[in-house]
Design brief:
single chain; alpha+beta; 4-stranded mixed sheet
């Protein structure tokens, strides 16, 4: 039997392969969550550049959040990534949840990014 890291990597690659087929040149909003923090990046895969990034470790957020590992932190990061992406000229993205299930912190970040003006 494979360990959980190998299964996670397979799931992540399966999601990314599907996204690349459906992206049509749109940048992807990639999410990474750890036990203590949550991170988001808008990545242009054609040029290999990160266009915008936000995390619960940013100076403006870290002081206002109780912890970086809850739904309120994810919502704040989602709003911040939407602002930074719009400042970089990106409004249409494709959401890359990685190997994570679409619920909890990942869902909160996605919904906050939609409210902030990103469409996906």
């Amino acid at each position: 039997m494979k360990n959980t890291n190998e299964l996670f990597e397979r799931r992540k690659q399966r999601v990314r392969t599907t996204l690349r087929k459906r992206a049509n040149g749109r940048p992807r909003l990639s999410v990474h969550r750890s036990g203590k923090h949550i991170y988001a990046q808008v990545i242009d895969d054609t040029n290999g550049q990160t266009l915008a990034a936000a995390s619960s470790l940013d100076k403006g957020l870290k002081s206002t959040l109780k912890t970086g590992a809850d739904v309120t932190a994810a919502q704040a990061v989602g709003k911040m990534i939407a602002e930074r992406a719009k400042a970089a000229g990106v409004e249409n993205v494709i959401f890359d949840r990685g190997g994570y299930m679409y619920h909890g912190r990942v869902k909160a970040l996605a919904e906050a990014a939609r409210e902030g003006g990103l469409s996906f």
